[in-house]
Every structure is written in C-alpha cells, then in structure tokens.
Design brief:
By secondary structure, this protein is an alpha+beta fold. The protein is built from 4 helices and 6 strands; from the N terminus they run βαβααββαββ. Strands 1-5-6-4-3-2 form a 6-stranded mixed sheet, covered by helices on one side.
C-alpha cells in the first residue's frame, strides 16, 4: 500500500542524539568521511564511489544501517545491487541456507533495482541508497530530486512492456511510501521487506 506518511508504522524516528545515523529530518546523515570520494566526484568526475558502508551506532541495538551516495555516478543500478548484496552477506541473509531465505534476498535485490531504476527514469537519477536491517525487516530508501509521485500503473497490464516497477515493489513489500521534507527539493521512496522465517 502506498502512503505518504513520514515513517512507516513502528519505524524509526530520528533519535535526538543522532545516534541512529540519521539527521534531525529523519534522513541519513551526509558527509561522513567514509564516502568522501563518492561525494566529491560530482557529475562526470570519474570518481568511483566508495563501497565502504556507513555503519550506524544502532548496530549494538540489533539495527544495522548502510548508505551509498549515487549522485553523479554512472551504472547506478548494478552499483546499488552490488552494494545491497554486500550488505545482505554482511547481515547473514546470504548465502541463503533455504529456498525461502534465497527468495527473500532476491526480493530485496529486486526492490533495490526497481527503486533505483525508477529514480533514473522519472527523477534525473538517484542521489542516495540507504538500507537498514533489524532482525525482522529490511528497509530500503532511495532519495532523488524528482517532484513526481511514484505509483503503480493502473490498470496493471502484465503483458505490456514497462510500467511494472512500483507494481513489483507493492507486491513484494510489507509497505512502501514516499517521504518529503518541506522546503527541500526531491523525495525519498522507501520500502520494507520482511525477513524469511
């Protein structure tokens, strides 16, 4: 179900101390030295984004967070998938021991691909990928500077090419929505997927 509430039910709110890795607006903090090379590259700068994740202080509380700056990079869809795959390995979702675990990991990678692709097609490209995991849910966020409102195409026609991205996200996820910060251009599209049983 698509929503526009700032956070999904029971989801994170910004911690006053900033310990969550989020800024006061609820968005991941920017400018950490871990991704300096990615942020400094700029469009056409040829700088390869750092794949070293920004780990949140919430790791000890069972929540782990990683983010990747994508703004100005080329090949962002495979880059985002590789980054998400590395996170899934680090968090124990991969290698998968069962078919259900493998399917859950593949769903996460597909949702990452769809959200990043949507930002490329409809919003001049993604700015950042943010992925967080606790014991039960993986949350994916893709921020961009676009003004549009993503929505599944209706009616959905499975036999036609294109237009399936948000339908896929809607079908695979527990919930998804759009966050906007008043006075700031762009949006963040988020989606949450459940951990395998």
């Amino acid at each position: 179900m698509s929503t526009t509430r700032p956070f999904s039910p029971g989801d994170r709110g910004p911690e006053p101390s900033g310990a969550s890795g989020a800024s006061e607006s609820g968005m991941p903090a920017m400018g950490s030295s871990d991704e300096g090379s990615a942020a400094a590259g700029g469009p056409g700068g040829g700088t390869v984004p750092s794949l070293r994740p920004v780990e949140s202080a919430e790791v000890s509380a069972g929540r782990q967070v990683r983010r990747l700056v994508l703004e100005g990079q080329s090949g962002v869809v495979p880059l985002a998938r590789d980054f998400a795959r590395q996170a899934l390995y680090a968090w124990g979702w991969l290698p998968a021991a069962t078919a259900d675990q493998r399917a859950a990991a593949e769903d996460v990678l597909l949702v990452v691909s769809e959200l990043v692709t949507n930002a490329c097609l409809h919003a001049d490209g993604p700015d950042e990928l943010w992925i967080a995991c606790d014991n039960k849910v993986i949350r994916v966020e893709v921020s961009d500077k676009g003004t549009g409102q993503p929505a599944p195409r209706t009616p959905h026609r499975a036999g036609r090419p294109g237009g399936h991205g948000m339908f896929i996200v809607q079908r695979l996820c527990l919930d998804w929505g759009v966050m906007r910060t008043p006075g700031v251009a762009g949006k963040t599209v988020w989606a949450e997927l459940g951990a395998p049983a």
